[in-house]
Design goal:
Elements: E1 2-6, E2 9-18, E3 27-36, E4 39-43, E5 48-50, H1 53-71
Antiparallel strand pairs: 1-2, 2-3, 3-4, 3-5
Protein name: Polymer-forming cytoskeletal protein
């Protein structure tokens, strides 16, 4: 999970490991969350699936920043 401050909000990018069968490689589902002063403002559903944990987290952060831009 990665977080950062953005225009007064705290934005979060999450990665959730997905294992489909024991022989397949790991994939990561991305999601994002926005909080303000410690309270939940909005959370995404699954934004996509990625081969890298970092890529999934960055997708969540990108989504959260875009949400803040659209709602500020």
């Amino acid at each position: 999970m990665q977080s950062q401050s953005y225009h007064g909000y705290q934005v979060w990018g999450h990665s959730i490991v997905e294992l489909e069968g024991q022989l397949q490689t790991k994939r990561y589902a991305a999601s994002g969350t926005i909080t303000l002063r410690g309270k939940l403002v909005h959370a995404s559903g699954v934004l996509g699936h990625f081969d890298s944990e970092v890529d999934a987290e960055l997708a969540g952060l990108d989504w959260a920043r875009a949400w803040v831009d659209a709602h500020s």
